[in-house]
Amino acid sequence: DIQMTQSPSSLSASVGDRVTITCRASQTINNYLNWYLQKPGKAPKLLIYAAFNLQSGVPSRFSGSGSGTEFTLTISSLQPEDFATFYCQQGYSSPLTFGGGTKVEIK
Amino acid sequence: QLQLQESGSGLVKVSQTLSLTCAVAGESISSGGFSWGWIRQPLGKGLEWIGYIYPSGSTDYNPSLKSRVSISVDMSKNHFTLRLSSVTAADTAVYYCARDLTSGAFDIWGQGIVVTVSS
């Protein structure tokens, strides 16, 4: 199985901050990397697919980059509704696997 | 607008079979060429992919569950079903169904259903 490692596991930030979350795969996954946001009690929401493609309806403050084994999710200006847990997930090979999550909290 | 809704028993006894259905509304499950999947999340923990059913009807399962899991589709009812046999307390989780937009990216999710395995 491909292991997905996210860092940090949690962070504190303020509204307006630029936030970066990193995801590392245990082997190359080309660009088959997706990012989700999950709020408590809710299903995950797809933000970015295939490393850098913004899902329809997702604000442009979210962006994704990277390839191979190293990927980054950037929030250019953190908004109140962004305080949540973020997950990366590889779609390159079965079994699909998720990172452990990054919880973004209010500073 | 496409919507998914999980249903089934929220309480299952140890060693029995968990059975959940995902109803698809707003789109025919047989059109569009999408794959449909199940993902679960133990309370307070991370996400685990359970498996897929492809447009062809073939399936792919997480090896960690492969001997116990099956996913099937009923085109006439526009829903797909998860069965997980011989459940233990470790199978207690929120279970989500979802559509695969492309290459493992799940764009539409159900609201999730809590399943508790009890003795």
Radius of gyration of chain A: 13 Å
The percent of residues in helical segments of chain A reads under 10%
Order of helices and strands of chain B: EEEEEEEEEEE
* Major sheet description of chain B: 7 strands, mixed
Structural category of chain B: mainly beta
Short description, anyone?
Chain A is an all-beta fold.
Overview of the structural elements:
The complex is a heterodimer of chains A (107) and B (119). Chain A has 107 residues and is mainly beta. Chain A is built from no helices and eleven strands. In chain A, strands 2, 4, 5, 6, 9, 10 and 11 form a seven-stranded mixed beta sheet that branches. A four-stranded antiparallel beta sheet of chain A has the order 1-3-8-7, with no helix packed on it. In chain A, a hairpin with a 2-residue loop joins strand 7 and strand 8. Helices cover 0% and strands 55% of the residues of chain B. Chain B has no helices and eleven strands. In chain B, strands 2, 4, 5, 6, 9, 10 and 11 form a seven-stranded mixed beta sheet that branches. In chain B, strands 1-3-8-7 form a four-stranded antiparallel beta sheet, with no helix packed on it. Chain B starts with a strand and ends with a strand. Classes of the chains: A mainly beta (107), B mainly beta (119).
Key attributes of the depicted protein:
heterodimer; A: 107 residues; mainly beta; seven-stranded mixed beta sheet; four-stranded antiparallel beta sheet; globular; B: 119 residues
Q: How does the SSE layout of this entry go?
A:
The complex is a heterodimer of chains A (107) and B (119).
Chain A: E1 4-7, E2 10-13, E3 19-25, E4 33-38, E5 45-49, E6 53-54, E7 62-67, E8 70-75, E9 85-90, E10 97-98, E11 102-106
Parallel strand pairs in A: 2-11
Antiparallel strand pairs in A: 1-3, 3-8, 4-5, 4-9, 5-6, 7-8, 9-10, 9-11
Chain B: E1 3-8, E2 11-13, E3 18-25, E4 35-41, E5 48-53, E6 59-61, E7 69-74, E8 79-84, E9 93-102, E10 105-109, E11 113-118
Parallel strand pairs in B: 2-11
Antiparallel strand pairs in B: 1-3, 3-8, 4-5, 4-9, 5-6, 7-8, 9-10, 9-11
